[in-house]
Design goal:
By secondary structure, the chain is mainly β. The protein has two helices and 22 strands. Strand 5 and strand 6 form a beta hairpin. Belongs to the porin LamB (TC 1.B.3) family.
Length: 431
């Protein structure tokens, strides 16, 4: 073949190839990844006391006990996420978290009597859209809007959420020198109902302006910083504002093998409830001021032994929930022994304390102004993985609760004597 013919053939081939590429040109908005993720959680607690079920949590939400005492007999939660990625790098998430039975304590049969329980029906807890890597904001930045639990943290053994912004809002999150930084506005309406008698809609909407900066190197771990400026509508000037702040250290188990999360928080006014725990329960006046401390984690002692622990303290600096000198604290440990790959033994011990002014508070007097509660529990989780967090599991347990006197026992709804024995089986799974 002549050189001219070879050159002509090469040019022709290039033109044809170029035409083919041109026909398959990719647009930046083309979808390159599109899929669904399904996650969930379930907690089914079967408890009996003297042959009947109970609604009693024995002061667990108030840091009095740390046993397997949640009252939900059939709490089920599903989180569904649709994740999409585009050719130009932009991505989006649509998240829906639904829940049924949270807080229900009745043992329903197949007749479906739970339809009459308006407190623990099917609910949508989160539904929001998040879009990230928009070209005019940068690949490390995302924006979101909708209803969500923003930046939640809960105690390991108490199970209480001490940090969150639960409500409807919008926000932006990015990276600064490799650290996570964000700003959000979240609002929540107490009650959520219009007064039918007066047709009044004077809503006392709560709003939190959240600023957070996470992942700061502290040498022994990383530190997270939260600042929340809160306000409440249709309240007088003494009941309409608040400030909450916290600093959190994520580290090893106090220098040993394992992990801990340790936090110190301050709350004032509307933010009196642990400072950074925002939701429809928020509120307070100018006299409300509190401090909150918590430290919890899991230590890996050996191949067979692990131990979870929690120390939590909250107290009034001026007033807390309308009470001067109010303080609560709990100390709890849960050693866990791996019998084999599918069986472990758990032992839980906790000591909870609450006290207020000697003059009495919340209609309490005498022995009722101070309480000391001991909770001892033994359990034998049957599980697919005997690690501390191995799930799913079925956990038979016996929990013994002893108060320092009958007045203290009555505060956690023990009406006969000063002690109680609870027998139950708790099934739990997350995925």
């Amino acid at each position: 073949m002549k050189k001219v013919s070879v050159l002509a053939a090469a040019v022709a081939t290039a033109l044809v190839t170029g035409s083919a590429f041109s026909a398959e040109k990719v647009n930046g908005t083309d979808v390159v990844t599109d899929g669904w993720e399904v996650h969930g959680y379930a907690s089914m607690n079967v408890r009996q006391i003297d042959g009947h079920t109970t609604d009693n949590e024995y002061g667990k939400p108030d840091y009095q006990t740390a046993g397997t005492l949640g009252k939900s007999t059939n709490q089920v939660e599903f989180t569904i996420k649709k994740h999409t990625e585009h050719a130009n790098g932009v991505w989006s998430d649509f998240v829906v978290r639904s829940e049924f039975g949270n807080g229900n304590s009745f043992a329903y049969s197949s007749s479906g009597g739970q339809k009459d329980n308006t407190d623990s029906q099917f609910e949508v807890k989160e539904t929001f859209v998040e879009i990230g890597a928009l070209p005019y904001l940068g690949e490390d930045t995302s924006v979101w809007a909708g209803q969500r639990f923003l930046n939640r943290s809960a105690g390991l053994l108490s199970g209480e959420f001490w940090k969150q912004s639960s409500g409807v809002g919008a926000g932006i999150q990015t990276k600064i020198s490799g650290k996570t930084a964000g700003f959000a506005i979240v609002e929540a309406d107490p009650g959520g109902e219009i007064n039918a008698a007066t047709a009044s809609d004077d809503r006392t909407t709560l709003t939190s302006h959240d600023f957070y900066f996470y992942g700061v190197d502290a040498g022994i771990g990383s530190m997270d910083f939260d600042l929340k400026l809160m306000k409440q509508a249709n309240k007088d000037s003494d009941n309409s504002e608040g400030l909450g702040a916290s600093v959190t250290l994520n580290s090893s188990y106090y220098g040993m093998d394992g992990w801990t999360q340790t936090a110190l928080a301050y709350g004032q006014g509307v933010a009196q409830n642990r400072g950074v725990n925002f939701g429809q329960w928020s509120g307070g006046d100018d006299n409300a001021e509190s401090i909150f401390f918590t430290s919890y984690g899991v230590m890996n002692i050996s191949d067979k032994w692990q131990m979870g622990s929690e120390i939590t303290y909250m107290a009034a600096l001026d007033q807390l929930f309308g009470v001067e000198e109010l303080k609560r604290y709990i100390v709890a440990v849960r050693p866990s022994y791996k019998v084999n790959d599918n069986l472990r033994v758990e032992m839980t011990a906790s000591y909870g304390h609450e006290e207020g002014p000697e003059a009495g508070f919340w209609n309490r007097a005498g022995d009722g102004t101070e309480s000391n509660i001991i909770n001892l529990e033994i359990a034998t989780p049957l599980t697919v993985n005997a690690d501390y967090f191995g799930r799913p599991q079925i956990k038979p347990y016996i929990s013994y609760i002893k108060a320092d006197d009958e007045a203290s026992a009555a505060l956690i709804n023990i009406s006969n004597d000063d002690k109680e024995v609870i027998v139950g089986v708790h099934a739990e799974i997350w995925f």
